[in-house]
Specification:
Order of helices and strands: EEHHEEEEHEEHH
Structural class: alpha+beta
Strand order of the largest sheet: 1-2-3-4-5
Number of strands: 8
Helix content: 25-40%
Strand content: 15-25%
Number of helices: 5
Largest sheet: 5 strands, antiparallel
Shape: elongated
Length: about 210
């Protein structure tokens, strides 16, 4: 279940906790992948006991244990992924966190490019969409695959490279987020043309 976005105000900074925003159907896919992987590993483990050489049994068992560990790591990292944003007068920080650690990415406002709300990448409908003989739901499957590899709904360029963040953030979430972020860098925060329609009530030419 998606958690609410939380804002933590400091004297000279703002921490925005986007929480865990993984859709239910994506969680289901993660569960299926985990169960299939561990199921195959269990079958291999049971068959390894039939080997006659002890060295092969040990090697096979070690390999299966490694598969278990990798499957658990992959599953937990994706299921409990959280994203946070730190904002100060000089830096914009993206924090990506899992049960196994967290990574911080710091960006200077003056080097950041225009901030865009991208949303989900455009996808061409599958030829079988809406057809009565699309028994296997190919179009739905393609959309699930797209969501699995979705990097975020907001992006900007930094030193010539695109930076995407804010997975699962819809336009109304993005509006609130940008309103809060704008209080720190002021005019240093440049917005794409699409924000004119998302934030009609704000005059971005004025300093906060």
């Amino acid at each position: 279940m998606k958690s609410d976005i939380k804002y933590y105000w400091g004297n000279d900074h703002l921490l925005i906790d986007l929480g865990n925003r993984i859709e239910l159907r994506i969680r289901f896919v993660y569960w299926i992948e985990f169960l299939i992987t561990t199921g195959i590993a269990t079958i291999l483990l049971l068959r390894s006991f039939r080997l006659t050489q002890s060295g092969l049994v040990v090697a096979a068992t070690a390999g299966v244990v490694l598969i278990y560990l990798l499957a658990a790591y992959r599953f937990l990292s994706r299921m409990f992924y959280r994203e946070k944003i730190g904002v100060s007068d000089h830096h914009f920080t993206i924090i990506r966190q899992t049960p196994f650690g967290r990574r911080l990415y710091n960006y200077e406002w003056k080097k950041m490019g225009t901030l865009h709300y991208k949303g989900k990448d455009a996808k061409t409908d599958h030829p079988l969409k809406g057809k009565c003989f699309d028994y296997f739901g190919f179009d739905t499957q393609e959309r699930v695959v797209q969501d699995l590899h979705h990097d975020g709904n907001l992006y900007f360029e930094y030193e010539g490279k695109p930076v995407r963040f804010a997975r699962g953030i819809f336009s109304w979430h993005a509006e609130d987020l940008v309103r809060m972020v704008h209080l720190f860098p002021g005019s240093a925060l440049r917005l794409g043309e699409e924000w004119k329609y998302l934030l009609e009530e704000i005059d971005w030419t004025k300093e906060p």
